[in-house]
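User: I'm new to structure prediction. If I give you an amino acid sequence, what do you actually give back? Let's try with this one:
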Amino acid sequence: MIHVADGIPTAFVEASEAHDAVARAHAAGHGLLVDLTAFDTPEREDRFDVVYVLHRLADHARLRVQVRVGEGVALASVTDLYPAANWYERELYDLFGIPFSGHPDLRRILMPDDWVGHPLRRDHPLGGEVVDYGAAGRRDTVAPLVFPEGTSR
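Assistant: Good question. You get back a string of structure tokens that encode the predicted 3D arrangement of the chain. For your 153 residues, that looks like this:
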């Protein structure tokens, strides 16, 4: 299904068809991967939306390919089509926990190797932890989180 939002056509595809859809766009001249990002909607069974933003230099046309993915479901890597996807896919793996099958080096890129969890998931804790930055005098209390009226975590 194709939908046009803010002037950019968006193709919604199944996870199993994501690589093929991106490959068709690549063959049609969309030779530049502008962005590869995701967002989390934990209320859904397929909680993650992975969004590929592609650009065709010949006529400056953009295309989005959007894929819904469930927890632990691996997407096929597009590093064979766009080598720059290597870093983007590692970032999504690190910050959301979305795995990519066939990726040449899928490991954390921003968070320390011993970090537990994935910080851009909507169910990740929102702070309040004591962080020791090595300053003299360690703080043993944690300031409570205050939310504006009518909002929550």
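You can read the tokens as a compact description of the fold. Here is one thing that stands out. The radius of gyration is 19 Å.
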